[in-house]
Every structure is written in C-alpha cells, then in structure tokens.
C-alpha cells in the first residue's frame, strides 16, 4: 500500500462500518444500567420517615436539608456540616439558582448583578450546561484556555483585575468535563488569592467528579473554601456536588457548600422558591451512602465498570489514530469523558460522518461558549453508557470518521 492509497482504504473501512447499521448514542455522560444497579438498595433503603432530630421526612420543611444529609456531604466535601445545604435532586439546579439569585438580588451585601453587564470566565473546553445557563440568562462569556494543571491563570488574573463586569468563573476542579483536568494546588491558591475588580466575584466550583477516579491514584484538589478564607475572600467560592453519578443520576441528592454568610443568603432565597426538599430521598441516601469510606467503596465498583470502556476507546484510538498527525486525545485519571482533539477544522465534519454511520455524539463545539469551538477541534467522547462491545465499535467508527474527514 502506498501513501496515495490511504484515503480510499479509509473510505472503504468507513463504508463497511456504515453498512453495519449501528445505532449508538454517546451524546451524554450518563451512567450505564449496570452502574445504576449498584445502588438498587435505594429502593428499600428507607426504614422509616423520621430523621435523627425527629423531623418527619414526609412533611414540608427543612430548607437546608436534614442534619444527617448535611453531615454526610460535610464529610464528603471536607466542610463543616453547618456550611452545607442539601437540596434538590441534582447540582445543576443549585448552580442555576445561585446565578439567578445573584442576578436578581445580588450576593450578600452587593447590588443585583443584573443592573450592569455581567461576564463569566469559562475555561475551555468545558461543560456545555454551564455555558447554557450563562447564555440564556444574558451573561457574556470569555474563553480561557485550559492547561494540564487548570485554566491559564496569567490570563485569568489579568482579566479579573481589569474588568469589573467579570462576576464569576466556572471551575470543574477535578477530572473536568471534558478534558479530565485536575487543578494544581498553585492554581487553586491563585484563584483564591487573586485580586478582582468586582468585589462580588464568585467561583462556581463544580466538584461533580470528586470521587470518580479511574486511575490507581485518587487525585486530590486543595480545599477551595479553606484557601479562600486564608486569602481573606471567605465568600468567594460556591462548591457544588451531587450523588448523580454515585447513585442514580435522575433521583439523587445535591449539595451546596460555602461560607456561613453565603449559606444564610442561599437559605433566604431558596425558602421563597420551595417549602423544602425531598427529605425521604435524603434519608435513603444517608442510609445507603453512610460515610466517606462507603462512598469510596461504591466508587471503586463504578470504576471497575467504567475502566474497561475507557480502555477500549483508548485502544481503538491508538490503533486507528495513533499515527495520524495532529490528532490527540486525553487519557483521563477520572471523570466521565475523553477529549478527542482533531487538526484544525475537522471536528464538525467528523461528528457529521459519525452520525451518518449511526453514532450520535455531542455536537462539535458544545464544549465551548455559544457552541463555538474557534478552531473546530474538540470532540467529547462519553464512554459510560454503551456496553463494552458497543463502545468499542463506536470508538472505531469515530476514528474511521476522523480519518475520512482528514482525507
Ligand atoms: N457538572 C458537570 C461538570 C457535569 O459533567 C455534570 C453531568 N454531566 C453535572 C454537573 C450534572 O450534575 P447534576 O446531575 O448534579 O446536576
């Protein structure tokens, strides 16, 4: 085979793949049914409706969450329970509400954001639903490049010092979506200490993958709330987490952790929105998850199901893309995604070719504000949901699609 033959051979392989008539949806990072099964004990986990303090879980009330649920997340997040609120079935709604309350009412002691233009810094590639909140609520977004140890901090420091409209920044500090980046201690320190032109600047610290290790080493990130207190900015960070990818993604419990002032502020506003969260769900989660060691043991079981799928994708990419110039991909130590990076201008075409071959991917560009990847290079791969066979086939199909896109 000569080099000149290569495109046609790629075409042939791609066409043969298409003939298989597969239908594979890899658009979202959902847990597989086998992962959901790991928590089926939740179905019978409620042995009563009374919380430890006597609260009747069946009734209204308990805006901040049951004491035992706050204690559990306090232990999980390494934060005093008094600085934790447990509310809602998923953390995205808590993030959304923090931004809405800040826009309409202002953070403690500050004017409502909505009176002036509001800008957020967005490390890219990042999580599309973060960016969707900003876009739909009229918050301008600025891309910040992501490095191996976190966002480009020289740029972040410069921007926040100069521009008082920058009120916030999205951060997924561990195993980021989709790049799998883990923030270094130095990056966390700089985020906590940096001088911001806006006195009410906040960090939206989305700790979605805190326990979701894939590698042998359980990587740790510095405690942002403690770092902010030490830096004299105690109200800077709002930390979010949930049990979505620990137990059931659609029926979990979520937590917000922050300074005492921010928790009081949150409670005031969330008490207007709801007369209290689903405390029976909190009770059964506390019964099942118990404490940090129990959660870590459950996450090992998730990892045992996820690792072969990640490895299968990596092996297919190595086989079909290993020698293709300009193509690379991440080898995450945790989280839910692999970021496939194409040469400039090839991601959209690859996703379209994969679609023709029966593989639905997240739209190219989704990992960027306004759905616009300026160089059209990033494709988010979500290996969790399909079976091992399906994901292996899908990874091959994506690789073939990319080869054809480049031909
Ligand atoms: N944050 C990130 C970074 C995510 O990737 C996801 C799920 N894809 C979420 C939040 C959603 O979390 P929850 O289910 O708690 O709303």
TrEMBL record:
CDD domains: AAT_like (cd00609). One of its GO terms (molecular function) is transaminase activity. It comes from the Bacteria. Keywords: Aminotransferase, Transferase. Gene3D superfamilies: Aspartate Aminotransferase, domain 1, Type I PLP-dependent aspartate aminotransferase-like (Major domain). PANTHER family: AMINOTRANSFERASE, PUTATIVE-RELATED, ASPARTATE AMINOTRANSFERASE. This is Aminotransferase class I/II-fold pyridoxal phosphate-dependent enzyme. It comes from Duganella zoogloeoides.
């Amino acid at each position: 085979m000569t080099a000149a033959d290569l495109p046609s051979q790629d075409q042939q392989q791609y066409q043969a793949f298409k003939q298989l008539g597969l239908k594979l949806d890899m658009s979202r990072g959902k847990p597989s049914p086998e992962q959901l099964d790991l928590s089926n004990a939740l179905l019978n986990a409620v042995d009563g409706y009374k919380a430890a303090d006597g609260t009747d879980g069946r009734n209204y009330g308990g805006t901040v969450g049951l004491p035992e649920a706050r204690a559990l997340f306090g232990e999980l997040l390494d934060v005093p329970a008094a600085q934790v609120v447990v509310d809602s079935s998923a953390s995205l709604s808590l993030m959304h509400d923090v931004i809405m309350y800040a826009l309409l009412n202002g953070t403690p002691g500050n004017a409502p954001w909505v009176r002036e233009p509001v800008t957020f810094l967005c490390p890219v590639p990042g999580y599309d639903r973060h960016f969707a909140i900003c876009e739909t609520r009229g918050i301008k977004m600025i891309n910040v490049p992501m490095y191996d140890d976190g966002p480009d901090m020289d740029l972040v420091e410069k921007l926040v010092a100069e521009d008082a409209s920058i009120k916030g920044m999205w951060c997924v500090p561990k195993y980021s979506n989709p790049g799998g980046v883990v923030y270094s201690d130095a990056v966390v320190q700089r985020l906590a200490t940096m001088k911001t032109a806006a006195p009410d600047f906040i960090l939206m610290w989305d700790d979605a993958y805190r326990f979701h290790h894939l590698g042998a080493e359980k990587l740790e990130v510095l405690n942002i709330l403690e770092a902010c207190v030490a830096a004299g900015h105690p109200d800077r960070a709002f930390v979010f987490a949930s049990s979505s990818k620990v137990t059931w993604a659609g029926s979990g419990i979520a937590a917000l952790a922050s300074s005492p002032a921010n928790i009081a502020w949150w409670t005031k506003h969330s008490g207007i929105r709801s007369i209290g969260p689903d405390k029976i769900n909190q009770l059964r989660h506390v019964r099942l998850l118990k404490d940090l060691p129990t959660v870590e043991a459950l996450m090992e079981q998730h990892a045992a199901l996820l690792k072969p799928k990640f490895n299968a994708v990596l092996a297919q990419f190595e086989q079909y893309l290993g020698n293709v110039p300009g193509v690379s991909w991440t080898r995450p130590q945790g989280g839910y995604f692999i970021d496939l990076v194409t040469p400039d201008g090839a991601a959209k075409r690859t996703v379209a070719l994969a679609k023709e071959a029966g593989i639905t991917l997240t739209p190219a560009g989704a990992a960027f504000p306004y759905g616009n990847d300026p160089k059209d290079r990033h494709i988010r791969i979500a290996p969790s949901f399909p079976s091992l066979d399906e994901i292996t086939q899908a990874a091959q199909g994506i690789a073939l699609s990319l080869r054809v896109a480049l031909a």
